[in-house]
Amino acid sequence: MNNKLSRTKFPDNFIWGVATSAYQIEGAANHDGKGKSIWDTYTHLPGKITDGSNGDIAIDHFNLYKQDIQLMKDLGVKAYRFSISWPRIFPTGKGAFNMKGLDFYNRLIDELLKANIEPFATLYHWDLPQTLMDEYGGWRSRETAYAFADYAGFMANKISDRVKNFFTMNEFYSFVDMGYQGISIDIGGKKVNIELAPGLKLSTAQLNEVRHNAVLAQGLSVKAIHASGKLGTKCGPADNINTAVPLIATPENIKAATIATRELNAGYLTVMLEGKYTDAYLEKAGKDAPKFTEQDLRDIATPVDFIGLNVYRPTIYVEHSNDSIGYREVPLNPSHPKMYSAWHSLGPEVMYWAPKIVETLWNPKEIYITENGCAAKDTITPEGKIYDTDRIMFLRSNFLELQQAINEGVPLKGYFLWSFMDNFEWSAGYGNRFGIVHIDFETLKRTPKSSALFFKELSKNNWIP
Ligand code: BGC
């Protein structure tokens, strides 16, 4: 009998990586001259984090980074997407920089390169310097966009000798909509409010301004990175695209899903890649539409080198409709399966449709999956094993869809699993474990789960084990 798996291989140069973010893992909140971020403030407000925890120590990656990189190496990780804490570099968001903060990332990058792991740096994963919040209202002001572009250029200048790829900002909808207005989602027929720092409750007109400033920041930062980085430095956003998935893949429904996806991302990816707000977006916003100039739109649409997509679930399922918008959302069956997080309905086909539709709409040169993964209720057996069967099932089904997209020629260059280690999961505190490496939050001991061994096989053989 032939025991060899015959699944199609991924392309030889496909990059298998893992992802994390600074506030969720670093700790050392007041160390080596770091300034406060809005997350340092927010987590210390009573009642904001489900388990009352914060990221002061998190999983102490700031001190344990060498051990973590060794583990990455052992597990066959080829690339690491980490984020840089802006207030570690500029304690007040701008002005004087903090050499000790920069030194930490220099140490981290050098250690990664020594381990033969390609560093991919994200410049903004939500930990805005508190001073910019106090002075300008954070992303409510375009001053913050200018400060971000300066910081992005500064970082490109300092580290692009070793870091070739930068993700500018992570998940616009999350830090803008959930941070500046809050959202409400339907979970099992119940409306649940979700909020992230800074936890504001702005009006829709104000929110639209914040969105506009955020995409402006992204465009200006791309310019700054290209101007200050070494020749050939590449960058682009890492966005949690809202994906409309065709319920049944007929040509009409695929068209409907494409139209819907463009509209669902009108305030973010669509304006960044097309340099205009869609008619439907402006019409719906009416008097609440953001105020902008033609120059703003040109800046927002500064050409990016790649698009990063954070893909977890289909946002909606759609079918074709004959009315003017061209699509109809179909309701999710109450029995539709979910992963462990209440918001995480299962729909691996989104891993095919998200990049596929992005290619159809905007034809980018390169696409990365910058996040994908799931939380699970991981338990340790008496022998010290963590059999996260549901996470492996989730990943495998997603990889099959990813492979399909690659086979059809979608320019996918790499994949970053969220997350390498269990960490501080924002408002959920330490309750939702997303890692393929288990963390004992008391002792900070790291233990690879079964999914980490699955990832190791995947990366070693370049096919789905
Ligand atoms: C974020 C991560 C987060 C993950 C799981 C994404 O929204 O970028 O920081 O931990 O999803 O919720």
Could you characterize what this model shows?
It contains 16 helices and 15 strands. It has one domain (19-461): Glycosidases (TIM Barrel, Alpha-Beta Barrel), CATH 3.20.20. The strands form four sheets. It has an eight-stranded parallel beta barrel, surrounded by four helices. The protein has a three-stranded mixed beta sheet with strand order 8-10-11. Helix content is 40%, strand content 16%. It has 465 residues and is an alpha/beta fold. The mean pLDDT is 97. Beta-D-glucopyranose is lined by residues 21, 24, 170-171, 174, 240, 310, 371, 418, 425, 434.
Structure in a nutshell:
The chain is an alpha/beta fold and 465 residues long. Strands 1-2-3-4-7-9-12-13 form an eight-stranded parallel barrel, surrounded by four helices. Helices cover 40% and strands 16% of the residues.
Structural class: alpha/beta
Strand order of the largest sheet: 1-2-3-4-7-9-12-13
Poorly predicted regions? none
CATH uppermost class: Alpha Beta
In terms of DSSP E residues, the strand content is 15-25%
Oligomer: single chain
Number of separate structural domains: 1
Please write out the topology.
Layout: E1 15-19, H1 22-25, H2 38-43, H3 61-74, E2 79-83, H4 86-89, H5 99-114, E3 118-124, H6 130-136, H7 142-159, E4 165-170, H8 172-180, E5 183-187, E6 190-194, H9 204-228, E7 234-239, E8 244-246, H10 251-264, H11 266-274, H12 279-285, H13 294-300, E9 307-310, E10 316-320, E11 327-330, H14 350-362, E12 367-371, H15 389-407, E13 412-418, E14 437-439, E15 446-448, H16 450-461
Parallel strand pairs: 1-2, 1-13, 2-3, 3-4, 4-7, 7-9, 8-10, 9-12, 12-13
Antiparallel strand pairs: 5-6, 10-11, 14-15
The structure holds beta-D-glucopyranose.
Residues 21, 24, 170-171, 174, 240, 310, 371, 418, 425, 434 line the site of beta-D-glucopyranose.
